[in-house]
Design brief:
The structure holds two protein chains of two kinds.
Chain A (H helix, E strand, L loop, with lengths): L6 H7 L6 E4 L4 E9 L5 E9 L9 H7 L19 E3 L18 H14 L19 H9 L4 H13 L1 H8 L23 H5 L2 E5 L7 H8 L5 E8 L6 E9 L2 H11 L3 E2 L2 E2 L1 E4 L3 H6 L1
Antiparallel strand pairs in A: 1-2, 2-3, 5-7, 5-10, 6-7, 8-9
Helix pairs in contact in A: 5-9
Chain B lengths: L3 E3 L6 E6 L5 E6 L4 E5 L5 E5 L6 E6 L5 E6 L3 E6 L5 E6 L4 E6 L5 E6 L8 E6 L14 E3 L6 E7 L4 E6 L4 E4 L5 E4 L9 E6 L5 E6 L3 E11 L5 E11 L4 E6 L5 E6 L18 E5 L5 E5 L6 E6 L5 E6 L4 E5 L2 H5 L12
Classes of the chains: A alpha+beta, B mainly beta.
């Protein structure tokens, strides 16, 4: 059998029963297909799907253009997006902040903001910024401690302690808090060899462990967003089940914010577990040790 | 938002444009091909093949009938949008860096590069919309800026003037006789002007520059502080960290979108912690940065906004076009704050 053969031919050559589609009165379509699995065994695949027709109104010229035939490199291709050229990307967040992102905001601003808030009689939860009283916050148990002890000296020292354990960040701190590219650090052999993973390792990244299985990306966004601007969050997931494997990496934009977050999150009860949070050690340095 | 990634190009993007209804998205890149996509699902409708060099610029007319493109092979081409057929080719002595249709679709302007002893110029061609392939060879007007070369140009004030942005950061207005009509005394930007996009009504426009700022300008005449008539008035300034490659005005919402980033060639040589490849949203009125959204894996070369504010698209150095559709959150947000929100 030739190696390159389309799956469609494959099905025919094995003389499987044809694919059947039945739609019941609730609008649920059942599709039954037969195919060979990876081990060469014949399997029956039953899928139940519900098709919903979404109608949208468009300008008539737009509707006309929808029916245009393809041309150029797409000539003769069937309608619908081709996965070779069109894919769906990673989810990105657009969060519009009302006050602007500038850090050096004038002091008057906070005062006037408070006044405006009082004038509008807007109730804001101190914990989750929702529109309810702090005492009624659904996250009171988990987040109460995070923000409650704002200037807790214990948290600060534990953060600094963890920082001291790690050689890479202390090295960065030695240079006056500014990031020094590897090629310009003491003991460097000249220009960097690779430009592939430049951004990822440069950002202050926290490793969060002992997460529960149900933990998702958005849970962590909600948890960490309050500390500062987050560049990315990666949750370690089981490939088959898609459940959290218990760890995640959170990259902040600024080191100070990451440090603050680490102090607050480390030891925090979350779901039914106690979180542990430390600096993530970049891949290269682990191997070097 | 989940962006739709369009990977129809093999090299970095140079310009992307929505058509008037926003259902089609045109993209041009350094790989000589122009693509057109259905913006709602990212399906590629077709390609316009024929250029033999980097396609620097494209523009589509208001009825989505004709597309004009300018390329580094010294050619400007007129295309039939629906069939992908090339109707007409104009040859020049240097590359075409910018093209644009006039408001009434009757003329196009073309900015040519200054190179090999040839001076940069802005030429205006009359387009016979009935004739198709038989178009006039000779330009209607030729504008030859005397100082710094023009990098961008646009029609403004209902095709009364052409505004040009220059390599040294100046802005000039030209009238329809090809004469310099108004020269901005102070330099608009400190460095090269990378992009210029008109507001929907053509009365103001935004410029982006390598000097890390984007500025909104009003097309006059407006009275300035001395009581003189000023034809180009600075309205707003947005200054960020990265050099900007493109900026666009969001119609209907008080925001602008900027894209840029460290030059791809400088990424390995500078010690900057971050390339600033994010797309930045600024409040158009308050001049405050309101959001940063992850962009591509390299600098963003071009930004386009859906004309009905349903989303935006970015074209990056990495060869991908990313089409974003705004979530409900975006439309529900109160851009002026709860107390200042204008009443409907």
């Amino acid at each position: 059998m030739p190696a390159l053969q389309s799956w469609a031919d494959d099905v025919e050559s094995h003389d499987f029963p044809p694919r059947t589609e039945t739609t019941d009165k609730d609008g649920i379509t059942t599709i039954v297909e037969y195919k060979l699995n990876d081990e060469g065994k014949k399997v029956k695949v039953t899928r139940k799907i519900k098709r919903t027709l979404v109608k949208s109104k468009v300008n008539h010229v737009v509707a006309e253009r929808m029916g245009w035939t393809k041309f150029g490199a797409e000539k003769g291709h069937k309608a619908g997006p081709d996965t070779a050229t069109t894919t769906v990307g990673e989810n990105v967040r657009l969060k519009l902040t009302a006050g602007g992102i500038k850090k050096d905001e004038p002091e008057e601003d906070s005062h006037s903001a408070l006044q405006a808030q009082l004038a509008g009689r807007k109730i804001t939860c101190r914990l989750c910024q929702g529109d309810h009283y702090t005492t009624r916050c659904p996250y009171k148990d988990t987040l109460g401690e995070v923000l409650g002890g704002e200037d807790n000296p214990d948290a600060e020292t534990s953060g600094a302690g963890a920082l001291g354990d790690n050689p890479t960040p202390s090295e960065m701190r030695a240079a006056g808090g500014k990031y020094v590219p590897p090629s310009m650090r003491a003991g460097a052999k000249g220009a960097g060899e690779s430009m592939n993973n430049k951004n990822r390792d440069d950002l202050p990244t926290l490793r969060v462990t002992n997460l529960s299985e149900d933990c998702t990306d958005s849970d962590l966004w909600d948890l960490f967003q309050r500390f500062g601007r987050i560049n990315r969050i990666y949750v370690g997931k089981d490939q088959e089940t898609g459940l959290c494997k218990g760890f995640a990496f959170v990259s902040f934009e600024s080191r100070a914010e990451a440090e603050k977050a680490m102090g607050k999150i480390n030891g925090l009860p979350y779901d039914h577990l106690i979180l542990a949070c430390s600096w993530s050690v970049p891949k290269g340095t682990v191997e070097a040790k | 938002m989940r962006p739709i990634l369009l990977s129809g190009h093999e090299r970095s993007l140079t310009q992307i444009k929505y058509n008037a209804e926003g259902d089609l998205l045109f993209s041009a890149s350094k790989d000589h091909v122009i693509n057109v996509w259905h913006s709602h699902n990212g399906e590629r409708l077709g390609t316009y093949d024929g250029h033999n060099g980097t396609v620097w610029t494209i523009d589509v007319d208001s009825t989505s009938t004709f597309l004009v493109s300018g390329s580094a092979d010294n050619m400007m081409k007129l295309w039939n949008v629906r069939t992908g057929e090339c109707l007409k080719t104009w040859e020049f002595t240097t590359a075409i860096k910018r093209v644009m249709w006039s408001e009434d679709d009757s003329k196009i302007l073309a900015v040519t590069e200054q190179r090999m002893g040839y001076k940069g110029a802005v030429r205006v061609f009359e387009i016979n919309r009935e004739a198709g392939a038989t178009q006039s060879e000779e330009p209607l007007i030729t504008i030859t800026p005397s100082g710094s070369k023009a990098t961008v140009a646009a029609w403004c004030a209902l095709d009364q003037y052409i505004v040009t942005g220059h390599e040294n950061g100046t802005l000039n207005l030209w009238d329809m006789d090809g004469e310099l009509f108004y020269e901005k005394e102070d330099r608009a930007h400190q460095e090269l002007i990378t992009d210029m996009q008109m507001s929907p009504d053509g009365t103001y426009f935004i410029t982006s520059s390598k000097d890390k700022s984007a500025k909104i300008w009003s097309v006059g005449p407006d009275k300035n502080a001395q009581g003189d008539e000023d034809y180009l008035t600075l309205i707003k300034t947005f200054t960020g960290e990265p050099p900007l490659n493109s900026a666009a005005i969001l119609p209907g919402k008080p925001y602008i979108i900027c894209g840029g980033g460290q030059e791809a060639m400088a990424v390995t040589t500078t010690g900057a912690r971050h390339g600033h490849f994010e797309i930045r949203f600024w409040h158009r009125v308050f001049e405050e940065e309101v959001a940063r959204v992850k962009g591509g894996f390299g600098p963003c070369n071009t930004v386009a906004v859906h004309p009905q504010t349903k989303g935006y698209a970015i074209g990056g150095e990495d060869g991908y076009v990313r089409v974003h559709h705004f979530d409900d959150d975006f439309f529900n947000a109160k851009p002026y704050g709860a107390s200042l929100e204008p009443e409907d």
